[in-house]
Specification:
about 300 residues; mainly alpha; Serine Threonine Protein Phosphatase 5, Tetratricopeptide repeat; 18 helices
């Protein structure tokens, strides 16, 4: 039907846009590009078409072309919200400090146009994290959560920042609890909560529960396996100090099994030396030491949406 309408009236731009959208939904991205570009022959200043070309370019893993299309859309319509927002995301993800003033300008523009959109404040918070202005980042991410209390990335990154950068680990607890209530398989959240259990609250029972859950979901998670062994030993610390080496080896058979696994996949971390230190024996081989630390989650996981 759309093809008939276009054939009857070749300058029917909305028909091309609709056909291009259908091609995108069918996964026929290259055909969509041809159709959108045909629409531009009749309306070369159509910001929606340039935006859609940018989205398709992202799907084709061509971010440079996508950014050019978003910028072209903004040249024709400086208030084109989707192009403004997605170009801001691309600037933030690129991580070039020279682009931060332009990113801030775009985010402020977006805020004026839609002051209740949580994604804007989250992106502002991530920008301030990049600039190491953690006080301001905390303010913006909390504002994001005012508008969307279950925003997954906001909950985790705020909790992580409170622990690692603002030295307020107990204030991270309600955000982690909300995160895990809504996303019960968020392993990085469980790891962070387990670390607080061990290092701040000295709650080994809760830590054991969280690390075990991570291992259930990710059996090859090195840091979780290591932390689980540490918790197991700390729970028996008083008795362990009085045990013989042979008895310690029996107790540590669980941990040593993981050491063998880590050696096979060539990802041994400090766990190897830690375990043998607890047994009071020197390791018999050399291990590759890798420090595994929790890192900020990807800031943007949302799908780009076509503008109709």
């Amino acid at each position: 039907m759309l093809q008939t309408a276009v054939s009857m009236r070749p300058d029917y731009v909305q028909g091309y846009i609709n056909r291009g959208d259908i091609m995108v939904k069918l996964g026929r991205m290259k055909e969509a590009i041809v159709i959108y570009k045909t629409a531009l022959k009749y309306e070369p200043d159509n910001a929606d078409v340039y935006y859609n070309l940018g989205v398709v370019s992202l799907e084709l893993k061509d971010p440079d072309a996508a950014r050019v299309y978003f910028e072209t859309a903004l040249q024709h319509d400086p208030d084109h919200w989707q192009s403004l927002y997605n170009s801001a995301i691309m600037i933030q993800e690129h991580g070039n400090a020279n682009d931060w003033p332009e990113l801030e300008k775009r985010l402020q523009h977006l805020e004026k146009k839609n002051p209740t959109d949580p994604k804007i404040y989250f992106t502002m918070g991530m920008l301030d994290m990049d600039r190491k202005d953690y006080i301001s980042a905390e303010k913006y991410i909390k504002k994001c959560l005012q508008y969307e209390p279950t925003f997954r990335s906001a909950l985790f990154n705020l909790a992580l920042m409170l622990v690692n950068n603002l030295n307020k680990p107990l204030e991270a607890l309600p955000y982690l609890n909300t995160l895990l209530q809504n996303y019960p398989d968020h392993t990085k959240g469980m790891m962070l909560l387990g670390d607080i259990n061990v290092n701040v609250q000295k709650d080994l029972i809760s830590a054991d529960k969280h690390f075990k859950r991570v291992v259930e979901l990710e059996p090859d998670n090195i840091q979780a396996n290591h932390n689980l062994c540490v918790v197991m030993v700390e729970k028996d610390r008083e008795r362990l100090n009085n045990w013989s080496v042979d008895r310690k080896l029996t107790k540590f058979s669980f941990c040593l099994g993981y050491i063998h696994l880590f050696l096979i996949i060539n990802e041994v971390n400090l766990h190897f030396h830690w375990a043998f230190k607890e047994i009071n024996q020197k390791p018999k081989c050399t291990a590759l030491l890798l420090g595994n630390q929790i890192s900020f989650s990807s800031a943007f996981n949302e799908k780009y949406v076509l503008q109709n």
